């Protein structure tokens, strides 16, 4: 009723006074976006309570009332976006769930700083070899492969071949994490024991005339690792602030664990990407890195199989890189079978499905299957 709505709004505005936010300023800021979601319109006090819970969960301490107001504005916008995407997923019959997460009080520009503006189409990569398919027959290679596969379940030397989820922080160094992930699994398979290599060295040293946090491609990282080798993570640890400027490469101070010229890397043929990637996973026990376009859906992904390909909706195109470590099939809420990839991200375990996502497979989601890379260490 109107009276109930007014009562809820009064409670909410009283709460805002605790943050030194005037009701007038708040309504001016949110005239178009705040009332997009019906449940918020009916119970704005609940939204404020969610923001308080968010601050506790993610240990937020804002420097002053001005920042607190700004962060609340971003939280409301994020809440609106999540609500709209959940509604769209539901009406589309998808089983995807989106939710508030650690990015929810960040501005769009701040979130975009985690992504790269450098896309595969911007750079000539003609000198990088394609995966050799001369002995690869698609139909024969696919026969007998399991319907589901997950590298997280594979062990080598008594330990799981896929290590812990890492966290790139607010540095656009996803490309380095993806490249390092390929190298350390390939090296683990070669040594028959798990190793963890340095993402920071790749981020500091491989971006070619740019700070590593300004973005690059997995192939930049793979090229560096092939030429220069790589130190262990314990030798050259990660710090998200290091690669915001040039001249931070300290590779010469750290012993090589993976030696130069050991690693081979290559492109995955986009026309046969699904088959080649599954071959790498099942028969070689190797992941594949992918570079793909980013939309709102990836940022707010919580669980389920992501089918909403909204990456072309962005005014400014951003790219992200991660690794595919498995595949499977789910049934969405409409009863339709959906094939998916298991994506290993570098946003810590409090994003997605404990750091992973299931992304629709076989549709070239946001160009994901068009820009894959593999890496291996050849037998001597």
TrEMBL record:
<dbReference type="Pfam" id="PF00112">
    <property type="entry name" value="Peptidase_C1"/>
</dbReference>
<dbReference type="Pfam" id="PF08246">
    <property type="entry name" value="Inhibitor_I29"/>
</dbReference>
<dbReference type="InterPro" id="IPR013201">
    <property type="entry name" value="Prot_inhib_I29"/>
</dbReference>
<protein>
    <submittedName>
        <fullName>Uncharacterized protein</fullName>
    </submittedName>
</protein>
<feature type="domain" description="Peptidase C1A papain C-terminal">
    <location>
        <begin position="145"/>
        <end position="376"/>
    </location>
</feature>
<dbReference type="GO" id="GO:0006508">
    <property type="term" value="P:proteolysis"/>
</dbReference>
<feature type="signal peptide">
    <location>
        <begin position="1"/>
        <end position="23"/>
    </location>
</feature>
<dbReference type="GO" id="GO:0008234">
    <property type="term" value="F:cysteine-type peptidase activity"/>
</dbReference>
<keyword id="KW-0732">Signal</keyword>
<dbReference type="InterPro" id="IPR038765">
    <property type="entry name" value="Papain-like_cys_pep_sf"/>
</dbReference>
<dbReference type="InterPro" id="IPR000668">
    <property type="entry name" value="Peptidase_C1A_C"/>
</dbReference>
<feature type="domain" description="Cathepsin propeptide inhibitor">
    <location>
        <begin position="51"/>
        <end position="111"/>
    </location>
</feature>
<dbReference type="InterPro" id="IPR013128">
    <property type="entry name" value="Peptidase_C1A"/>
</dbReference>
<dbReference type="InterPro" id="IPR039417">
    <property type="entry name" value="Peptidase_C1A_papain-like"/>
</dbReference>
<comment type="similarity">
    <text>Belongs to the peptidase C1 family.</text>
</comment>
């Amino acid at each position: 009723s109107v009276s109930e709505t007014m009562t809820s709004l009064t409670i909410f505005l009283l709460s805002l006074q605790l943050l030194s936010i005037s009701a007038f300023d708040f309504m001016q800021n949110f005239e178009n976006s705040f009332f997009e979601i019906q449940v918020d319109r009916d119970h704005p006090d609940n939204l404020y309570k969610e923001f308080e819970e968010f601050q506790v969960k993610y240990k937020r301490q804002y420097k002053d009332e001005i920042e607190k107001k700004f962060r609340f504005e971003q939280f409301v916008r994020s809440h609106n976006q999540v609500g709209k995407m959940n509604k769209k997923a539901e009406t589309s019959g998808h089983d995807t769930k989106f939710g508030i997460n650690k990015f929810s009080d960040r501005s769009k520009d701040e979130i975009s700083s985690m992504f790269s503006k450098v896309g595969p189409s911007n750079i000539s990569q003609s000198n990088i070899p394609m995966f050799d398919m001369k002995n690869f027959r698609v139909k024969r290679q696919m026969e007998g492969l399991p319907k589901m596969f997950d590298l997280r379940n594979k062990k080598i030397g008594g330990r799981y071949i896929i290590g812990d989820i890492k966290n790139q922080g607010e540095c656009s160094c996803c490309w380095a994490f993806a490249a390092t992930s390929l190298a350390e699994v390939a090296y683990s398979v070669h040594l028959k024991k798990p190793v963890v290599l340095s993402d920071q060295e790749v981020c500091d040293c491989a971006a070619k005339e740019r700070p590593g946090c300004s973005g690059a491609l997995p192939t930049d990282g793979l090229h560096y690792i092939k030429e220069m080798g790589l130190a262990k993570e314990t030798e050259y640890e990660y710090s998200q602030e290091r690669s915001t400027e040039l001249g931070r490469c300290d590779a010469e101070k750290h012993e090589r664990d993976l030696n130069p010229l050991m690693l081979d890397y290559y492109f995955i043929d986009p026309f046969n990407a699904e088959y080649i990637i599954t071959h790498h996973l099942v028969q070689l026990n190797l992941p594949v890195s992918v570079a793909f376009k980013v939309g709102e859906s990836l940022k707010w992904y919580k669980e389920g199989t992501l089918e909403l390909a909204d990456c072309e909706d962005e005014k400014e195109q951003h790219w992200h890189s991660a690794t595919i470590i498995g595949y499977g099939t789910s049934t969405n809420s409409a009863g339709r079978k959906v094939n998916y990839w298991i994506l290993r991200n570098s946003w810590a375990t409090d994003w997605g499905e404990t750091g992973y996502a299931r992304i629709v497979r076989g549709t070239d989601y946001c160009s994901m299957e068009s820009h894959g890379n593999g890496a291996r260490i050849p037998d001597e």
